[in-house]
Fold:
Amino acid sequence: MAISCFEQAASIILKKINIQFSKDYHLGIALYKLGFLQSIVSVTTRIVNNVNSDYCLSGLYSILGVSYRILGDINQAIECHKISEIKSIKCLQNLAKSSEEENGKQANLEFWKVNAAINIGFCKIELWELDAAMEIFVKLKKSREEIGINGCAIDVGFAFLNSCVGVKKEGENLTQPCST
Structure:
């Protein structure tokens, strides 16, 4: 695929679209859910190497992190999620200092920041690094009220970890709100 304007390509991949069963999916996420995983990794990798916008890089690395995790490259997924988290925090700090209109940027950045932590937690579970995963999910659970997103993902991760360490009743209680 020929790409001449990488910033524009990044914006298109990060563009929110509505699909049949969900709204507000980024195009890149919709594409890998439709089976274009290898293509989205290839194209997104080329784009991140040619884009300077930390905002775009945060979203693109988030997509790459999920993609690498699905492909089984857990360490590469963690690296991508760490970069996404760092870029989103940097952008949120700059946005707070700026008078620039945010046009939904803050919500996307907050999502990418929290999503990075959640995905790193799940990657740590896949690597069977349960103590590190538990530490991440405990922090997420404590800050849930300020986060406001991905509540069920936090509960699922925390419930799984509790069941692994033998606290099954706590794990069962955590899954109840998600199943209703």
